[in-house]
Design goal:
202 residues, mainly beta, six-stranded mixed sheet, binds the ligand Nc1nc2c(c(=O)[nH]1)N[C@H]1C(S)=C(S)[C@@H](COP(=O)(O)O)O[C@H]1N2, binds molybdenum atom
Length: 202
């Protein structure tokens, strides 16, 4: 009698990650207070027009929206699962505020100067979005209200909470954790955790 082996389920956990119940809060520094009258999302740097574009919080409601379900992998090990994000696809930013043809990277900026650099292709991935809602509710203050960048295919540090700006760059420049020993690219499936693991081209 022959037994057909069951196909192996694809691994859900990147190597070296551990599953955590619930959703831990993890970030550097304090949780900013949202002041709607002062808040804007700025798109600046190498825009095709040369101008800076700003959206108020109310403007965001008029932009296209999408839903993405994803796991969240923190580079220090914990993975929380089943996050349903709702918000504005990152590609919308490029569509509405075109970059020059020289743009290769973006810097995503948050309150208090937190930043994360992304290759343009990572930013324009169909899964990347600027989330206003999580599991049907507005994102909570400690998880990034009012707006949080979510880049599901990369480690959590590539997704600034309290997002305030997108800078178009014509060359790469390291962001906050990338300057502090974390990998420039941050693909959890490729174990791109620390900067000492980088190849010269990363
Ligand atoms: N503004 C800001 N965003 C941030 C961080 C931070 O320190 N500041 N930490 C990042 C890291 S390392 C991770 S793992 C996730 C954690 O998100 P969570 O607290 O919603 O789980 O937020 C990311 N976004
Ligand atoms: Mo993290």
């Amino acid at each position: 009698m022959s037994v057909t082996p069951k196909p192996k389920a694809p691994d859900r956990m990147p190597p070296g990650q551990r599953f955590v119940n619930g959703w831990p809060v993890s970030h550097y520094g304090p949780v900013p207070r949202f002041r709607p009258e002062r808040w804007s999302l700025r798109v600046f740097g190498a825009t095709a027009s040369g101008d800076t574009h700003e959206w108020t919080f109310d403007d965001l409601a008029g932009l296209p929206h999408t839903t993405v379900t994803a796991d969240l992998h923190c580079a220090s090990g914990p993975t929380s699962t089943g996050h349903e994000w709702y918000g504005i696809p990152a590609t919308t930013v490029l569509d509405l505020v075109p970059p020059t043809s020289e743009v290769t990277h973006v810097m995503a900026w948050a309150e208090y100067g937190y930043s994360a650099n992304l290759r343009l292709a990572d930013f324009t991935s169909s899964q990347t979005l600027m989330a206003t809602h999580h599991n049907g509710e507005p994102v909570t203050a400690e998880h990034g209200f009012p707006l949080r960048l979510v880049v599901p295919h990369l480690f959590g540090y590539k997704g600034p909470k309290w997002l305030r700006g997108i800078e178009y760059m014509t060359a790469d420049r390291r962001g906050f954790w990338e300057e502090r020993g974390y990998h420039n690219l941050a693909d959890p499936w490729l174990q791109q955790r620390y900067s000492y693991q980088e190849d010269a081209s990363d």
